[in-house]
Amino acid sequence: MRVVKITEDFTGYPSGRKRAFEKGQVVEVPDDFADLAIGKGHAKEPEPKVEERPAPEAAPAKRSVRP
């Protein structure tokens, strides 16, 4: 099984039964069906998720002590 992102509306038979796919869906389908859909331009590999890290907190400014 493989996860793909649908790039255009189409119908297919991933498990022997008719199924409608809509643009933008992210679905898990059998490997051979994924290869076929990608090859025909109906789907693509989803982009890997980029984890957002919070910005590190700024260190407090050092005060200069004047004698």
Characterise this structure.
- This protein has a domain at 2-44.
- By secondary structure, the chain is α+β, with helices and mostly antiparallel strands.
- The mean pLDDT is 89.
- The chain has one helix spanning 31-39; strands at residues 2-6, 10-12, 19-21, 26-29, 43-44.
- Strands 4-1-5 form a three-stranded antiparallel sheet, covered by helices on one side. Strands 2-3 form a two-stranded antiparallel ribbon.
- The chain is rod-shaped and about 85 Å long.
- Residues 56-67 have a biased composition (Low complexity).
- Residues 42-55 have a biased composition (Basic and acidic residues).
Write the layout of secondary structure elements.
Layout: E1 2-6, E2 10-12, E3 19-21, E4 26-29, H1 31-39, E5 43-44
Antiparallel strand pairs: 1-4, 1-5, 2-3
Biased composition (Low complexity): 56-67
Region (Disordered): 39-67
Biased composition (Basic and acidic residues): 42-55
Supply database-style keywords.
alpha+beta, 13% helix, three-stranded antiparallel beta sheet, 1 helix, two-stranded antiparallel sheet, 67 residues
